[in-house]
Structure to design on (810 residues):
C-alpha cells in the first residue's frame, strides 16, 4: 500500500472522454490498494477563456477578482472527475482550495502556500475515498480565493504530497517523461528513467515545459519523489529524485534550448563603479528579468560594452527604459533577437573536468560562433545565432554520448 | 438613501457587453447614494452546459458534486461584474455563497436557506462598496457548496433583501414587468404597475416565468417589496407588494395559461372508500405532481371515473404506474395532451360574486367546452382543448375589462 498524489493537466481533462481515461488511471491505483489523492487543472482552454474575459474588462484588474473568476475552471473539473469516479464505482469526492483548506498568503494570482489542512484528506484516504482536489487555488487569511499562478496545479500536487508524506507524486501530462533533449529536434533523444531535482530544475527553467519550476524546487526541498508521465500511454515515466538515488551519474543528462531570448549590448558605457548596478536596478524596477550578463572592457579602459539577455517579449520595454534613463551614458544600443540559448545540464559535471571544453570544441567544429557564455555548478549555457539551433543541439547530444543506440 | 438588492438573470449577463450594461444600472443606483447589493446568475447557457456535462457523466449523479460543478457559473459572473464596476470607478467586490455565508440545509440542488451572515455585507454597503454576490448557491453545515435549484438566484436576492431589511429588491429580467396576460397572445395586454404577492404567486406557478415561485412566497412572508423590470429598457417595472398597498383592487388582475398539462381519466374505477387516496399516494411515491382533480360518479354508483392532470412530461410515467398497480382495478385509461389550463387570477374576486359565472359564460359564447374546473380563493382555472388557447385568453381578457384603451 502506497500513498499517492496524482496530478492531471488541462489537456488530460480537456473533455468528458479524457476525464474518463483519467478516471481509469485513478481507478487502477485505487484498485491496487493505494491511498489516492488527485489534483486536476481546468479543462484545456477554459482558463484562457476566463483570463481573456478578465483582461478584456480591465487590463489592470483587481487580482482578487481575477482569482475568483479563473479558479472556477478547476472547480468544474474536480466535480466532474469525482462524478466520473463515482459512476465507475469508486468512492470519491471533490474538495476546492478553500475546503481543504489550502492556506496561502494574500499575493493574489501568485500566492505562496503557507499551510495545508491535511487531517480530513488523510482520514478520507484512509477510509478508501479518492480525494479529488481543484488545483492551482487556495484561500487567504481574509477568506478570499487565491491562485498560485499559471501551471500552479503542479505546485498544488507536490505541496500536498509533501504535507501528507506521500510515497509518490505522479504528474500526468501530454509527454511521457523527461528526455535527454527535445525529441522533435533530436531523433536519438532518450527518455530518462531518473533525473535529479537539480537537473530538472535547470531543465524546467530552460524551457522544458514538463514541470512548473516552482513545483520542482518544492519537491527538492521536501524530497518528494515526483514522476512525470503521460496520461495518453501506459509507459513508465521519468522519476525526479534525489541525487543519492542515482547510482551511475551521467556527466551530462540533457541538452536544453530556449528560443525566446533577446540579446542587448550597451556599447560604450562610461566605465565607473556602480554603473552595472545602476543599469540592472533600473531594469529590475521595470520588472525586466535579466538572464545572461557579460561585460567587456574596451581598449582604453574608460568605456565598456555590457551585453545581457532578456526574454524577447521584454526587448522593446528594455530598450525604451535604457534610452529614457538620464543618468546612464552610452554610445549606442545593439539588439539581436535571432539568438538561442543552448544549455548542457548534468550533476556529474561537478566532478568532471572538460565538460565546457567539449561543448566549445563541438560548436567550433560546426563553425558556430558563441556570443555569450554563462555557467552554474551543473549547467553550461551559451548564446548562439538561432539558425544553428538544431545543428548545435544534435551535435552536443552526440558529443556527450546521449544518443540512443 | 435606500438599501437596494438588485438581481440580474442569465440573459442580462450573457456576455461582457451586457455585463457592462448591468454595471451601468448598478452605477446609477450607487451614484444616487443608495446602498447596493447585487446578485447575478450564470451567463446564459453556462448552467445548461455544466448540467449537460454532469448528466452525461452520470444520470444518477451525486447532488453534492453537481452543486460544486454548476455553482461555478455564478462565481465567474460575480467576479466579472465586480471587475467591470471597479473599472468604472465604483468600489465593488464579489462574494460567493460560502463567503457571505449563505447557510443552507444539506438538501443539495434544492437547498433551503437557514441563515444568512449579513454583518460583513451591511458593513461594506455602509462603506459605499457595491456587494456583488453569486446567486443560487450556499454552503451547508458540512462545508460543502449547495444550490437552491434552477432559478434560485431570485430566491437568493429576496432572502438577502429580507435579511438586511432592504427597501426594495429589483429583479431584472428580459421582460419589463408583469402583464395582465401574455403580450404575445393578447395585443391589448397591459403592464401592471402593482400586483399583490398572492396574485404573483398564482401567476408564477401558472407558468408566467418572470419570478421563481419560491422567491415570491418568501417575499410574501417577509414583506419584501419586489420590483420586476427589464435590464434592456429604462421603463419602470411592476411592483409586487402587499394587498394593503393597492388601493383600488382589480377584481381580476390577469389571465394566465399553462400548455404543459396532460389530462388522464381512469374510467370505471371500483368506487370504494380510500380508492382515490390509494391512487394519488401511488403517484406521489412515483414523484408525480398531480394538479387538477375531479371525480364523477357513474350511473349505478358502483364505479366511478377519476380525471386529473399532470405535467405532460410525466404522462407516460403516470400511465405505466397505473397500469402496473395490482390493487387498483379500472376499465380503461383515457389520456389527452391537447389541453391547456386557463386561469383567471385576482385578489378582488374574494369579495366579488359572479367572477366564475363570467368565465364560464364567456367560454360558452365562444363554443369552448370546459373539461375540468378547479378554484382557489383568488383563482379559477379551467382545462380546455389547447386549440382554443388564444381565443379563450383574448376573450377572457376583454370580458374582465383588462384590455388597454
Amino acid at each position: 500500500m502506497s500513498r499517492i498524489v496524482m496530478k492531471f493537466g488541462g489537456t488530460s481533462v480537456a473533455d468528458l472522454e479524457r476525464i474518463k481515461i483519467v478516471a481509469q488511471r485513478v481507478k487502477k491505483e485505487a484498485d491496487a490498494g493505494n491511498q489516492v489523492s488527485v489534483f486536476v487543472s481546468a479543462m484545456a482552454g477554459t482558463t484562457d477563456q476566463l483570463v481573456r474575459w478578465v483582461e478584456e474588462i480591465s487590463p489592470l484588474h483587481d487580482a482578487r477578482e481575477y482569482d475568483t473568476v479563473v479558479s472556477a475552471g478547476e472547480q468544474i473539473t474536480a466535480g466532474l472527475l469525482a462524478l466520473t469516479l463515482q459512476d465507475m464505482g469508486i468512492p470519491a469526492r471533490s474538495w476546492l482550495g478553500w475546503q481543504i483548506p489550502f492556506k496561502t498568503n494574500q499575493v493574489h494570482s501568485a500566492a505562496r502556500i503557507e499551510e495545508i489542512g491535511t487531517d480530513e484528506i488523510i482520514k478520507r484516504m484512509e477510509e478508501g475515498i479518492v480525494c479529488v482536489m481543484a488545483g492551482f487555488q487556495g484561500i487567504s487569511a481574509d477568506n478570499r480565493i487565491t491562485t498560485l499562478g499559471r501551471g500552479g496545479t503542479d505546485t498544488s500536487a507536490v505541496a500536498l504530497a509533501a504535507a501528507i508524506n506521500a510515497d509518490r507524486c505522479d504528474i500526468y501530462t501530454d509527454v511521457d517523461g523527461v528526455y535527454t533533449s527535445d525529441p522533435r529536434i533530436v531523433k536519438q533523444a532518450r527518455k530518462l528513467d531518473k533525473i535529479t531535482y537539480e537537473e530538472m530544475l535547470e531543465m524546467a527553467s530552460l524551457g522544458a515545459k514538463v514541470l512548473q519550476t516552482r513545483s520542482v524546487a518544492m519537491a527538492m526541498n521536501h524530497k518528494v519523489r515526483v514522476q512525470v508521465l503521460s496520461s495518453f500511454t501506459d509507459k513508465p515515466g521519468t522519476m525526479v529524485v534525489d541525487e543519492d538515488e542515482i547510482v551511475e551519474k551521467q556527466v551530462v543528462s540533457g541538452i536544453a534550448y530556449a528560443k525566446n531570448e533577446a540579446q542587448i549590448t550597451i556599447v560604450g558605457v562610461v566605465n565607473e563603479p556602480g554603473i552595472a548596478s545602476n543599469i540592472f536596478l533600473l531594469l529590475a524596477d521595470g520588472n525586466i528579468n535579466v538572464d545572461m550578463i557579460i561585460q567587456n572592457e574596451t581598449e582604453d579602459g574608460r568605456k565598456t560594452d555590457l551585453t545581457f539577455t532578456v526574454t524577447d517579449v521584454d526587448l522593446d520595454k528594455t530598450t525604451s527604459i535604457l534610452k529614457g534613463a538620464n543618468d546612464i551614458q552610452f554610445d549606442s544600443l545593439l539588439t539581436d533577437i535571432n539568438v538561442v540559448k543552448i544549455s548542457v545540464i548534468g550533476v556529474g559535471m561537478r566532478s568532471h573536468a572538460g565538460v565546457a571544453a567539449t561543448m566549445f570544441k563541438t560548436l567550433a567544429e560546426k563553425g558556430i560562433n558563441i556570443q555569450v557564455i554563462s555557467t552554474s555548478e551543473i549547467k553550461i549555457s551559451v548564446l548562439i545565432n538561432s539558425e544553428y539551433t538544431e545543428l548545435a543541439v544534435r551535435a552536443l547530444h552526440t558529443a556527450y554520448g546521449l544518443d540512443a543506440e
Notes: Chain A has twelve helices and 18 strands. Chain A has two domains: 3-174, 255-399. Chain A has a mean pLDDT of 92. The longest strand of chain A covers residues 254-270.
